[in-house]
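Hey all, sorry for the wall of text incoming. These are the two entities for the joint prediction.
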Amino acid sequence: MNDHLKSLLAEIDKAIQGIEPGRYPENLYDPIRYILDLGGKRIRPLLTLLAYQLYHDDVRKVLRPSLAVEVFHNFTLMHDDIMDKAPLRRNKPSVYKKWNENIAILSGDVMLVRVYDLLLEVEDPIVKDVIIRFNNCAVEVCEGQQYDMDFETKEMVTETEYLNMIKLKTAVLLGFSLEMGGLMAGASEPDLNYLKEFGINMGIGFQLMDDLLDVYADKDLFGKQVGGDILSNKKTYLLIKALELAHGEEYDALHHWLTVKDFNKKEKVNSVTAIYDRLEIEKLTKEQINKYFKMGLEDLTKIDVREDRKADLLELATYLMNREK
Amino acid sequence: MNDHLKSLLAEIDKAIQGIEPGRYPENLYDPIRYILDLGGKRIRPLLTLLAYQLYHDDVRKVLRPSLAVEVFHNFTLMHDDIMDKAPLRRNKPSVYKKWNENIAILSGDVMLVRVYDLLLEVEDPIVKDVIIRFNNCAVEVCEGQQYDMDFETKEMVTETEYLNMIKLKTAVLLGFSLEMGGLMAGASEPDLNYLKEFGINMGIGFQLMDDLLDVYADKDLFGKQVGGDILSNKKTYLLIKALELAHGEEYDALHHWLTVKDFNKKEKVNSVTAIYDRLEIEKLTKEQINKYFKMGLEDLTKIDVREDRKADLLELATYLMNREK
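and here's what came out:
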């Protein structure tokens, strides 16, 4: 990342430090401070600021409201970790583990209210518009999480269903983050739409890359166990594609590994990966990722500002496309 | 209740039927429809409409946004039932029992977003003010629920702490319901404050009456088991007051019933009630209730509209004060 992006991230981090979610009762507010302090890439508010900077240089007056997308993101993590029974978040105990489920539910609820406090800090004439668009996004994120949970017990998930799920669960919030930056900058309706679509397409590509890295990442760079999704039979893009393409013995072998209760972990990861290899799932997934990144970059091109103003957004997109963890 | 109140309640019920929380995924939206259709007294939107009618007769344009307080109330019930492990809600399975905890968390989250959709339906000039005041209230309701949960494991809860908890958990939402009606009607700042305080004082009295009825209700009218709070050692106003006033043998007897694991239910309820009787807890609680109701009625008096316009709010307050279940 270039120095400008790094300095924006530093400003975002400082502003997050400045968020005062509340004090008492401590069991309600400590978890909010905790999850916000766990870190993370802060991609969403960065997108908001960069979208704003397509039009105006000085981000000071939009920095605080931009945090809304980061607080909302962390709210979804706090509740998702309960639902997904995920004991760890960024290598630390997740909130429901460190405290308990009830506290994670209620702290999350307060966080969602605080998101609206931050959204209310946009300038008066756009408050209503910002909240309407945010609400559409927030509801879609919940829909995506519900589809994801529904998929766990669903026999068959199609590629289309899966792409729709990750669009809702992950991509629309990236889209809104950019759209909100544009809204605060007074961008035109077509520009707002390109910003949103840019974010959605990047987001889908980003999530597909997550699926891919879980199997094909460089172990040393990845930082967590390679093959976790395979071990938990998670319905990722790779598995859905493999189930669609496998026939005969290949299908039976895949089905075996999805149903066997007692197995050697390494053997399962290696065997399923070998099936993916024979079906060329890595190549197919990369093509799909590139398709979405390409569509995203086309959206960026269409935004009606001078090309040189788009350099930072392009830099961030490139950084995200080339990540190895 | 008089015919006017009944007709307002009918309009509220019809408007609630008209709420479209969403369709798919069904596991996300069916629970919202379900909890909204379970009924309930609809006191909160009724308070909003009656506050509005202090100033204007025709409630049509404020009916929809008034539902925000009812949807928010039901959101808190959906999440509270998970936290309190309450399997029943209005004699039907609560959402987390009928579906599961994850669905109850996520459906609740969407409901909270939908609350803001309804709040956005107020007229543009007051949108921001309404949401700011609602957010303060919503955060306090969460604080109240957290204090209530904290009390379960706390050795000693003072009367002041308890009164503050029920104010936050129950009363401030009644206060906001009235305040919102006033806001939509263009009431003055002093009037808004009296409306809010009227609701808060009534709400505290209302919650204390809940505690009282759980022990001293007429079994045939009450509709649920008398003494449930005694059996579960719930830290109610009655118990807190009794622990404060009991000494010597009386205190030991009370402490015995709070710690004994193996007991006859009827004997426990009768024995603890007998202790309450000797300490005159019923009388003390009634005095406290009357104190809050009286303060509430004084707030109502101070509102700067003709006395005859207050008749319906007075009627509702009287109805709530004299309930026997």
